[in-house]
Design brief:
about 350 residues; Nucleotidyltransferase, domain 5; 2 domains; five-stranded mixed beta sheet; 11 helices; about 45% helix; binds 5'-O-[(R)-(carboxyoxy)(hydroxy)phosphoryl]adenosine; binds zinc ion
């Protein structure tokens, strides 16, 4: 029996096992994160090392520094996840790792580490798509949630509307034509001289401001359910620069609040349109931007008014973490999706 035949046989046997525990690793950007998850729904541990302090000095993620930090921390974080879950490697049934999309060097650390561990322990290795992980963070928060549903996935690199037709079956409904929502928040935060990471800081500042202080343009997109944030970002940058030059700056909280409203309104309007046209009765929010207070509240209210069930991840599961990868991996494993040792980092890996 070859190595991959042996792994496939093990994965097949796991389909009939009552409790399946997966050790999952996430290193696609600036978080080194590992977790142990049971049956895709129950978090036994979730250890995260955030590199924020290392990158703050440079105002954004420096890929080279991220890779080095992952190398330094990965063993410690995996050990911490096992310890917190109170299991040894013998109690782990399969391994999982984010193989894309993300920073190639950062992904490579996780993929190489998990391939080595899988080979040494002779356990099946499940490759996971980062955004699929974000979507599955909802399964960890809501045990009753099952497909089909519509999902708005918004992070530093994605602004996508997916129809989640079944576990692992996605249909693209719309996506951004230029910047991702998280990227737009980060850039606007930089214009306001807020330190990295800008998105959450702009969100907090916006709570204290007047959201009608600055008028921003509506974005036009070719696709009915597509997004565009680059025109908004340029209009914001120009308005702030003009105000600076004239010496009559609006309070930063008003500027932040107006920008946040423009982004959230666009995300909400397109999502509601897609819900109406597709007929889905459930909406899930996913990705780092799902932590945004206004976006959560606005979608919650709009869904409530229309009798649509709204789901968004627990705040500690909105950002990058290992548990969401462990959840996505369980459903991939149940469909027999495992990797052989040729698995590589896929920085442009597409979900559909
Ligand atoms: O999912 P994530 O942690 O990493 C990626 O997969 O990209 O998302 C990070 C993005 C960053 O752009 C960050 O500024 C944004 O999510 N973000 C927020 C908030 N929290 C994180 N944007 C707006 N409001 C927030 N509260
Ligand atoms: Zn992410």
């Amino acid at each position: 029996m070859t190595y991959i035949q042996e792994m496939k046989a093990r994965a097949e046997a796991l389909k009939k096992q009552e409790h399946v525990r997966i050790l999952a690793l996430e290193t696609s950007c600036d978080e080194t994160a590992a977790a142990v998850v049971e049956n895709g729904r129950k978090i036994l541990s979730n250890a995260v090392y955030s590199q924020i302090d290392l990158h703050a000095l440079y105002g954004g993620v420096v890929p080279e520094i991220a890779s080095r930090a992952h190398v330094e921390k990965v063993s410690q974080i995996v050990e911490a996840a096992l310890k917190e879950a109170d299991v040894s490697m013998d109690g782990i049934d399969a391994l999982a790792v984010t193989c894309g999309p993300g920073l190639v060097g950062a992904l490579l650390i996780g993929v190489s580490y998990m391939k080595g561990l899988a080979f040494a322990c002779r356990k099946p290795l499940v490759p996971v798509h980062h955004i699929e992980g974000h979507i599955c963070a909802n399964y960890l928060t809501f045990p009753e949630l099952e497909p089909p549903f519509l999902c708005l996935a918004v992070s530093g690199g994605h602004s996508h509307l997916f129809a989640v037709e079944d576990y692992g079956v996605y249909r693209l409904i719309g996506c951004t034509q230029d910047d991702a929502a998280g990227e737009a928040f980060d850039k606007a935060a930089r214009v306001l001289d807020l330190p990295y990471p800008g998105g959450p800081r702009l969100d907090r500042l916006a709570d204290e401001g007047n959201d009608t202080a600055l008028r921003l343009p509506h974005s036009h997109t070719d696709g009915k359910y597509d997004f565009s944030f680059s025109g908004l970002k340029t209009a914001f940058l120009n308005a702030v620069n003009q105000q600076r030059m004239s010496g009559e700056m609006m309070p930063p909280a008003d500027l932040a609040s107006s920008f946040r409203k423009a982004v959230c309104d666009q995300l909400t309007d397109k999502t509601l349109l897609a819900l109406k046209d597709t007929g889905y009765r459930k909406l899930a929010l996913a990705g780092g931007v799902s932590a945004n207070r206004r976006l959560r509240a606005q979608l919650q209210e709009a869904c409530g008014q229309r009798g649509i069930a709204f789901y968004c991840p627990r705040l500690d599961l909105c950002g990058d973490n290992g548990a969401m990868i462990g959840s996505a991996a369980y459903y991939r494993l149940m469909r027999g999706q495992i990797a052989d040792l040729t698995l590589n980092a896929m920085p442009n890996y597409s979900l559909i």
